Amino acid sequence: MTAPPYDPMSDGGLQEEFVEKWRDAAYGCFSSGHKFCREVCPVMQVTRNEQHTPTAFHANIVAMSQGNLTVADVADDYVHCTQCGACELRCPNTLFTGDFYRNRTRTVQVVKAMRALAVESGIEQPNWKRWVEATLDRKNEPVIDVPVSQENVARWAEGLDLPIGGETILFVDCEAAFYRTSVSRSTAQLLKAAGVAFGLMREQWCCGGPAAEMGYLKASRELAEHNVADWRAVGANRIIVLDPHDYISFTEDYPDYFGASYDFEIVYITELIAELIREGKLQLTRPIERVVTYHDPCRLNKRKGIHRSPREILRAIPGITFKDVDHVTQWSYCSGAGAGLAIEKPEITAEISRRRVARARELEVDTLVSACVWSERPLSAAGSDVGLDVRDLMELVAESAGLDPRGVHGVAGPQQEAGQ
Amino acid sequence: MTTFVDVPDVAVDELRNALGDEGVLTGRSARFNRTRVPAPFPVHRWAEYVPDLVVLPRTADQVSEVVKLANHYRIPLVARAGGTGLNDGALPLKRGIVVDVKRMNQIKEIDLVDRTVTVGPGINMLKLNEELRKHGVMYPDDPASYPCSLVGGRIGTSGWSLIGGRYGHTRDLVISFQIVLPTGEIIEVGDGGGRKIRKSSTGFQLKHLFMGHQGTLGIVTEATLELVPRPEVEFAAFFHYPDYPTAWQSTGALATSGLATLAGVVLFDEWKVRYLRRDDEAYIPRPDRVKAVVATAMYGTRDEVEPAARRLLRIGRASGGTYLGDEISSGDWASRHDRYATPLHGRLRTGEVVPMSWHCEDASINFSQLPAVTEKWHAIAERYIDKTGILDDWGMFAYTNGAYKPWGDYLTEIDIGIWEQKLTDENWPDWVACKRALAQVALDHGGSITACHGATREGDAELVPVEMGGGFDVMMKIKATLDPNNIMNPGKYELDRAYGLDEKVFR
Q1: Facing residues of A389 across strands?
Q2: Shortest CA gap A25–chain B (Å)
Q3: Which of residues 95-154 of A touch B (CB under 8 A)?
């Protein structure tokens, strides 16, 4: 039952270095043994496979430290994660020793690190590999059968007369720039209507977050360096972000890459829009006759603690009936879209979204509102199967503000004109 | 990739035919992760207890197929639900096949008229209650592992519930179940017959026989459970005391109050209070005069609980307790599942913080014997802390242990931290000796080794024949009759002796 002995010379000591770095943190989970994370994990709830649990992600490292497993044995386990962060929140170690001992359980980082080790060791997932190669080639993610290229990255803004550069930049996520352009158009028009001065980048590349989440650190870094250089070149110091994945990249990955010199203020769109409504700079006058519930995007709610502003905005929309589900209850909810799961294991993503939509249906609502453009594709697909509309929060706010953003949104298939 | 020791390829092919490719896992990670349980086991010898393969059945028929096949090829089988047990029950001592039932997690029927819910063994109680909540009912099996343990494991260990004084424990809450016997037959067992019948006098009481056997007598594939109305009110009251004897007396006074909504009384000794103060979020206040704590909780309708709560507070105060206030009481009770084992609360004699794993001794002890057992257990812990240098005394709890009546005997727990990373073949026997000494004290005081975890691990298992007396011969006869080829979790409970084998628990 003993594994073939790991030879540190075979990979230049990569695995040895990895184990040395993560072994004690992994043992913190292994020795605790609670497994409270398991039933909140969106992937585990679907696959019911113990290897796809956060506890396995840590136990594997303990076994690697004993020479019992290698990265080749475990790489596939770590594909089964959306990096939603629920496991970290539900971990008693985080709850009871997180602050004083500075021992917050960092399973998301463990997953990212193991994926990076796999890539560096030559163990690649075929769809992720293709995705990252295409991203590097086109400088934006190959989001769907739309013309993804630098020539088209700002095409969503046609007719909006947006300037380039300035102190405040609106960073438009690849999915919003190419696929669900109604989100980016809504956002831009809302900011204009509220008198917020902002511009676009001269040349916007993918944030690099997905590449980092899949383990392609060099690719991620390359994309990040371009974006930061572009920001600096136009004198930007404040970046408005409309997708939670970008928000993670700019507030977690980029500071790691660039250290103290990285001094940009990163603002999430819901925080800003809530403030603009509160200050009366944005008037929501047109009633939206919908019965809605809100989907807490994982990266906002579980990883960044942003759950109040989207609710504040929804409650400010006249005519809307809002049936809320507590953000802690939503720790175990997810769309399944994150961290490349939809690219490598689309059937799991689809099932996670199906379950999320089913929970919304139980509330007898007609619309599920999200604030994460990446979540909206699988949720829309699941919603269309059962007659539930899935909308981005910015789309509804723009509508209520009397704007007519147009752009496309919606499920795969014939794209619809927003607001029609 | 396949490195089977005991499972012939032809058996693997037959398993794939029965369960499909995705229901049979042979990878190294799949197998290593199905060995691991939270109880300290000789982690330095992890590789010796890895199963040869894992199956993930979805139906009782599939489980039955697996069992028949294992009989044919004489392959050991170990059922695994949550893998959260604290006594190595789901650890495949003899390797073989782990039958992981997590995919059998469906809610099959909610019967609001006859007040039952029927589920697969792979469902978790918290998830079940999320669904039941919509109907105004709940399944009140509430162990420390409530957010992660699964119904199948609760039956396999005959679990204990924190609120069992009000609602009963697992054996009281599971009305009947379907089980695949060691020879593959699928049968229904309850008090008598009738899937939803709670009390019967027909035949033997087979439900009790097939609970708590740690997977040695079969694999549960469906269970019909009790539904109770969701309580309108939860009331928790915590008291502190200047010394342990006062707290112990007060525990008795509270537990025998006769208040029907009282779900449990928990006594924390001085070591436990010290341990909880290592917690940066501790609710337990710091003043030195706080030497022991008693926690109580009540559930029921508002009409019942509110007047009863006033009376409970009077009893607590009259017996020497000082109420810790609403915030501490409700806050600590709300976090009752989370704070049992926190690795970084481990301390060496020097005060150095090291990550420790958790051993929880869980004897059943009569109220009258608690002070003596408490004293002896701490003395044993002290001795082995000195001897091994890798242990730590995390203090004791005593929980009311009876069903529907919180008095008489107590789930008595000493928590020992173990610096598992330092376990070796040299110090493992010391740990086992410590464990055995603790269990022996329980027997010396007329108690039982275990209230809810089971006694299948080394240090416990060898005392099972002592505790059971003549009953152990009956156990062996039943085992040999039902499991003629000794395929069901072999090596556990010293039951190998029924087959003329005399092996140590860990090889």
Answers
A1: A367
A2: 9
A3: 95-97, 99-101, 103
pLDDT in tens, A265-323: 999 999 999 999 999 999 999 999 999 999 999 999 999 999 999 999 999 999 999 99
- Backbone CA torsion sign across B144, B147, B149, B151: positive
Identify the bridge partners of residue B297 per DSSP, sorted by sequence position: B236, B264
Output the CATH code of domain B343-461.
3.30.70.2740
Tell me the fold of B233-334: Alpha-Beta Plaits (3.30.70)
**B33/A60 Cβ within 8 A:** yes
CA atoms within 13 A on the CB side of B364: 16
| Distance from C-alpha of A251 to C-alpha of A269, rounded to nearest angstrom | 14
ipTM of the complex: 0.94
Q: Is A255 exposed, middle or buried (0-12, 13-18, 19+ CB in 10 A)?
A: middle
Residue ranges and CATH numbers for the domains of chain A are 8-120 (no CATH), 148-274 (3.40.50), 282-417 (3.40.50.11810)
Show me where the domains of chain B are located: 9-100, 107-229, 233-334, 343-461
> pTM for the complete prediction?
0.94
Q: Do residues A58 and A94 touch, judged by C-beta distance below 8 A?
A: no
In this structure, CATH architecture of domain B107-229: 2-Layer Sandwich (3.30)
Which residues touch A283 (CB under 8 Å, ≥6 apart)? A401
For an interface test with A, give the residue of B22, B29, B421, B453 to mutate (most A CBs within 10 A). Answer: B29
User: Contacts of residue A99 in chain B, CB cutoff 8 Å?
Assistant: 280-281
Read off the DSSP letter of residue A336.
S
- Name the architecture of domain B9-100: 2-Layer Sandwich (3.30)
- At residue B165, the 3 state secondary structure works out as helix
Beta-bridged to residue A408, according to DSSP, are A417
Q: Which among B284, B228, B246, B275 has a CA at the least distance from the CA of B395? A: B275
Write the pLDDT tens digit of every residue in B330-350: 988 888 887 767 888 899 999
> Å from A83 to nearest chain B CA?
20
**Which class for B44: exposed (0-12), middle (13-18), buried (19 or more C-beta within 10 A)?**
middle
- Tell me if domain B233-334 and domain B343-461 are identical in fold: yes
- How distant is the alpha carbon of residue B36 from its chain centre? 16
Report how far residue A252's alpha carbon sits from residue A392's, in angstroms, rounded to the nearest whole number: 24
A–B CB contacts, 8 A cutoff, strictly below: 142
